[in-house]
Each structure stands twice: as C-alpha cells, then as structure tokens.
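Two proteins follow. First one:
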Amino acid sequence: MDNQILQEGITYLSKLDKINPETSKLGSEVIYNFVSLGIEAVLTAVLMDYNKMVDHSGISKMLRELQTVEDVDKGWIETARFMNRFQSYCSLEPIPVKIPTHEDLTKIIDFGKNVEIYAKGKIKI
C-alpha cells in the first residue's frame, strides 16, 4: 500500500510536540483544524488498510467504521464527540462558532498524539 495518506497525517501529528496552546501564535481554530486534518488522514489510511472507507471524513464516523474491524478505545470515541462541538458547518443559517479553549486544545492535541502512536504501530511506514 502507498502510505502517502498515512505519511501526511503523521507529518501533521508529529508537529504537535511543538504546539503549546498557551503560547502558540497560531489561533485556536488553526490548531484545532491542524490536529483534525492529521487524525482524519491517519484514520483514512488505517481504514484503507482494512479495505474500508467512510462516507465522509468525520472523526466520529471513522472511529465507528473502525469499530467494525477492531476494538476502539471508548475514550477516543468520547474525545471525537467532544471535538465535534468545535466543527464549523456551512449553512444558510448563521450558527455561532464555538472556539476551543487552551484546555480543550490540550485534550485534542493529546488525542492526536495517541492516534499518531497507534498508527505508527499499526501500519509500517
């Protein structure tokens, strides 16, 4: 398998050690999106390794699909649901965007690091 998707996700997630939400010049939304992109890419690669694909790139949906082939940590599912509250959606109705706090970002970054460790042990790069 070409691990380009996995490599892209790990590239995003490997940078998390350099991001401190308290001192980063990146805004909270940028950090959130950075972590989300990495997690989505890694989970896409893992699912593809199982010959699975989801209808869209939502992390919660990806984890539900992954559960059909292996056990998924309950904490991951809870964190993915937690992350959902910060997603922006295109809509004709204006919906205020909820911005993650520094504490929220720390939780999200830790989740991203755990997904990176999991992926590196799951699929050989």
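Second one, unrelated to the first:
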Amino acid sequence: MILKCNNEKVVNLVKYFETLDLADKLRLSIDMFEIYHIKVKNDKVLEILKKLLCAVDESYNKTKFLNLLNYKHLLMTLAQVMELTEKEQNIFVFEILFNIYKLIKPLYKA
C-alpha cells in the first residue's frame, strides 16, 4: 500500500487483494475495468491485464472468457468495490495496479 490518504474501506480491500494469488488479482482487475459500475476505463491497461492472465491461466488462454460466477470470493470483493465512491474506486484501482506491477516487475527484469 503506497497511499497514506486511504480510508478504512479502501485499506481493507487492498489488504484482502494482497492475499489473492496472481491469477485472481488479474481476474478481478480485468472485471473491474470491464464493468460499467466502475468509472475507471483504460483499454490499454485492460489489454495488458488480459495478456498477463493468458500467460498465467491456461483455461482463460483457451476461452478468452472470464466468468466470475466461478470465483465467488471475487464477486464479493467486486460488490464491495462498487459500494465505494468514485474517488475511492480510483484510489483502489491505482493500488491494485501498483500491486500487480510489484509482482510482475521481478519476473521481467531486462
């Protein structure tokens, strides 16, 4: 967690997000960028996340379809994210993208 101004809701969601494995982090992030309730939209980031999930998850690589009904814990997290204000959602998205970056960076050292 890098931002000091986070409120309790965002801090709790980020702490939970940090406990997920990489594939679940990517699934949740992709769904957040695709859902219309969350105001953050960035097609380039979405494309990168999908490519990373293809590399990590073989079943997604075959179908290119993400069904969160198979991941109930991610649905609950997504519901909590939808309850946040737009500013809190932006902060949460920033935090999760930074978290994913921290995980991926050591793998792709050049």
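SUMMARY FIELD: The two ends are 25 Å apart (CA to CA). The chain has a mean pLDDT of 84.
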